[in-house]
Amino acid sequence: MTARARYQGCCHCGRVSFEVEARLDYVMACNCSLCRRIGALWHGVAEPNLRITSGESELLLYQFNTRTAKHYSCKHCGVHPFSRPRLDPTRWAVNVRCIDGVDLSALPLKHFDGANWEEAAKALYAKRA
Ligand SMILES: [Zn+2]
Questions:
Q1: What is the C-alpha separation between 129 and 119, in angstroms, rounded?
Q2: pTM of the full predicted structure?
Q3: For residue 11, which of 36, 48, 66, 74 is within the disulfide window of CB 3.0 to 4.6 Å?
Q4: Mean pLDDT in each 10-residue stretch from start to end of the chain (129 residues)?
């Protein structure tokens, strides 16, 4: 069982940094048209568990399709440290690749079929209910 811990992360140039409290027991790869290109590995956390510690004004917001999700990237280095996921935009999805000192090869990898978002979301909600 992975304990809940506090992690630090940042974009590549370091202008955008954040602190996140999470139980890092999985990472999720998504094959939607954006995620498959940026290669992020996501972990979802509740709104109060992520704090942007610097560089909030350096973030670029990108939205597409239903414009529900908010995809943030650093406008200098282009890295995507976190987003507001379409599944629940009141929460955060953290790009675990941007967190310091995490052994990604040790974390179970889940797949989200974002290419078929409606069906994938329905299946996920059914599993949670
Ligand atoms: Zn940057």
A1: 15
A2: 0.92
A3: 74
A4: 88 98 96 95 97 98 93 98 93 97 95 92 84
